[in-house]
Amino acid sequence: MHRRALLRASLAAGVLSPLAAPALRAQGSADARFDHSLRIVVPNAPGGTSDILARLLAPELTKALGQSVVVENRTGAAGNIGADVVAKSAPDGHTLLLMDVSTLAINPSLFPRMPFDVQKDLAPVSMIIYAPYLAAVKNALPPKNAAELAAYLKGRAGGLNMANAGVGSLTHLTSVEIGAALGGDVTHVPYRGGAPAVLAVASGEADMIINGATATQPYVVNGQMRGIAVSGPKRLAALPNVPTFREVGWPMADAGTWQGVMVQGNTPPALIRRLEVALREAVAQPAMTARLAELGGEPRTDGPEAFRTWLAASTTEFGGVVTKHGIKPE
């Protein structure tokens, strides 16, 4: 009995010993290792906001994690195809989903059947940026501001075509709400992502777009289309003469593109933490912050729990808009 008591005391001392802490930390570090290349799955076409951001982050993550990071575009089904790739990937943190996560908040209300459960099969890592939406029209369209646009729309038979990033995207929901507020006849034309929708307006194929400023602002700055209004709390530094939605009395005043990174839902917390730190450090670099500002984006790296809270609240809010307008998938 005396020997057993000594053994129990020795084990207890080992558990409580300060020497145990470094061992646990070493084990945690081992759990957070990346031992082969990573991929960032973007469920949109090349050239859109998510794609631009992924290609900015990939080299920074390569340096931070010691493994090559590649970008893979997997389009279709309002982002569900690319998201499903990540939801069904190995839970080892090597497959990342980078997208406008407002889509993930909308799709459960839009699709009667989802190929994955957003809450269970995907785990938030970090929000990356918020970028406002920029409303713009093709140069051949006469209106130069919101008031002229409303008057033009009401007095024009046939209305206008408004391009969006796909049925059920937040650009679509925002366009529907603003189109209804403007009055007149608005035909909503879905494209396979924001990039082709922007190009449709720049080429004159579509009349108008409401899309992430990250991808749209360069076309307005370069004179390929005309800016009308921008969402969010302030005007864009690169377009100081373009008023905010709130200034012109439009709804959805704080809509925008919320770009975030998620991984497979069962990924170990240690790996999620390491990815979060790497992403936050990458976004905080002065060169990256300046580049995002040029594209109209603001860093938003508040961590997994804040991301999870935002997703839950947005799912309720955006689901209400889907129901109100009876929006259905294609």
TrEMBL record:
InterPro entries: BUG (IPR005064), Bug_dom1 (IPR042100). Pfam families: TctC (PF03401). Keywords: Signal. Coiled coil: none annotated. Residues 1-20 form the signal peptide. Belongs to the UPF0065 (bug) family. This is Tripartite tricarboxylate transporter substrate binding protein. It comes from Roseomonas haemaphysalidis.
